[in-house]
Amino acid sequence: MYTIVAIALFIVLMTIGCGVILLKSKENADGGKIKKILKFSLGSYISLIALFLFVLAPRVAFAAASDGSASGLGFIAAAVSTGLATIGAGYAVGAVGSSALGAVSEDPGILGKTLIFVGLAEGIAIYGLIVSIMILGRI
User: Fold this and answer.
1) Helix, strand, or coil here: 136?
2) d(Cα 106, Cα 117) in Å, to the nearest integer?
3) What's this model's pTM, rounded to 2 decimal places?
4) pLDDT for 33-68, tens place per residue?
5) Which 3-state string (H, E, C) describes 9-72?
């Protein structure tokens, strides 16, 4: 486990270091190198987290379910449903919010309409929370 955490910390620090170096250099005007480095580091970080979940999560679930039940997997399912729903909601609110801000700056009269779309995007997180409450209720 310590190896996975050390590798993740190394990837994060290398990404930050490469980004700072490339931002300070004058020859990288288009940002092509930064995009390549960020894609590589994000892909390696996501694969490392997936490895962590697939290798160590069953052990954690087995330890949580020491009485022979599958309640440990239920807790993991509740956490994953809430986590993925909030990540999706954050992405949706970011996209919708920036578009809404641009639209409101051109026509302030449509503020109410844009708030509806932002609220719909935030509803994704509430759906994930409801699903996790339903999962926890069945444990």
Assistant:
1) helix
2) 17
3) 0.52
4) 767 777 777 787 778 777 777 776 666 656 555 555
5) HHHHHHHHHHHHHHHHCCCCCCCHHHHHHHHHHHHHHHHHHHHHHHHHHHHHHHHHCCCCCCHH
